[in-house]
From TrEMBL:
Organism of provenance: Veillonella nakazawae
Keyword RNA-binding: no
Entry's localization field: Membrane
Membrane-protein topology: Multi-pass membrane protein
Entries under InterPro entries matching the protein: EamA_dom, EmrE-like
Entry's family note: Belongs to the EamA transporter family.
The name this protein goes by in its record: DMT family transporter
PANTHER family: ACYL-MALONYL CONDENSING ENZYME-RELATED (PTHR22911), SOLUTE CARRIER FAMILY 35 MEMBER G1 (PTHR22911:SF6)
Length: 295
């Protein structure tokens, strides 16, 4: 269970970081809300095709929770896209990772989950590593767009926690959960766009890449939160900070210091140790049922 959750989380971090790179590239020509709309559109079509070919139907149970998951994730995605376009890629990604704090709060309040015993020092190391990357004494990204990024992090955390809540019932396919997110994400992007711009030339290729990557990334991300503790799965996403920082340096000339590299390594090591602690703590009672459903 924990090993599968670790693999899902790491793959989702890599794919989501790559998607964020394309979003920032496209953001110079296309409004953020419109990018979210296209991501949701292509994602919706892909997921519905998979559901049709595999005979997966929309269930009647937990529709309220599924809709809430979609709304949280959809509007959180729009907030994240806005921040990606207007902030440095590394800064925006770091701010997104504050969702881990919100997951910690939400999972304790609504899921009654506990952090695995002995995980405190590794979570602390992750926090210190993020502070090193942020460098608050010189960090200048706390503008209105930084607040939008933090709002997106809170909404994403609410979506992640809702996924975990839904998964405990063991009645829903990952693709059904993804479909609600993609559909509501498409709507959220449309209603937050005041002016539509027709994509030109290579813009369409980037849009297709964003849509395709997002579908695969969401599958892995959903799988990560279904198969492991919500707090552990979220903190594993800190690996994406290092990946995005590297992308920012490579494609936009954003600074990538030795401290950033060291912090990224520290986060990766801490993530692996958290997964091991979760595995040693034993599976959840309903874990076998959930695992069987996602195979």
């Amino acid at each position: 269970m924990a090993k599968k959750g670790l693999m899902y989380a790491l793959l989702s971090a890599l794919l989501l970081s790559t998607m964020n790179l394309f979003v920032k590239m496209l953001g110079s020509n296309i409004p953020s809300g419109e990018i979210a709309f296209f991501r949701g559109l292509f994602g919706t079509v892909a997921v519905l095709i998979v559901m049709y070919t595999q005979g997966i139907r929309f269930s009647k149970e937990d529709r309220g929770h599924l809709l809430m998951r979609g709304l949280y994730g959809g509007f959180g995605m729009v907030c994240n896209f806005i921040a990606l376009v207007h902030l440095k890629l590394s800064d925006a990604t770091i701010l997104f990772q504050t969702s881990g704090i919100f997951v910690l709060i939400f999972s304790a309040l609504f899921l009654k989950e506990r952090v695995p015993k002995g995980a405190g020092k590794w979570l602390l190391l992750i926090f210190v590593a993020v502070m090193v990357m942020v460098n608050p004494f010189s960090f200048t990204g706390f503008t209105w767009f930084a607040l939008v990024a933090i709002l997106g992090a809170a909404l994403s955390a609410a979506a992640y926690t809702t996924i975990r809540l839904i998964s405990k019932r063991g009645k829903h396919s990952n693709f059904e959960i993804m479909a609600y997110f993609m559909i509501t994400g498409m709507i959220a992007g449309l209603v937050t766009t005041d002016k539509l711009v027709m994509p030109q030339g290579t813009d369409w290729l980037i849009i297709l890449a964003i849509g395709g990557i997002s579908v695969v990334a969401q599958f892995f991300l959903t799988g990560a939160f279904v198969t492991t503790n919500a707090v552990v799965a979220q903190f594993l996403q800190y690996v994406g900070v290092f990946i995005s920082s590297f992308y920012g340096f490579l494609f936009f000339g954003e600074s990538l210091s030795i401290e950033t590299v060291g912090a990224g390594i520290a986060m990766f090591v801490s993530s692996v140790m958290l997964a091991r602690l979760k595995e040693q703590s034993g599976p959840l009672r309903e874990g076998k049922v959930i695992e069987d459903k996602i195979k």
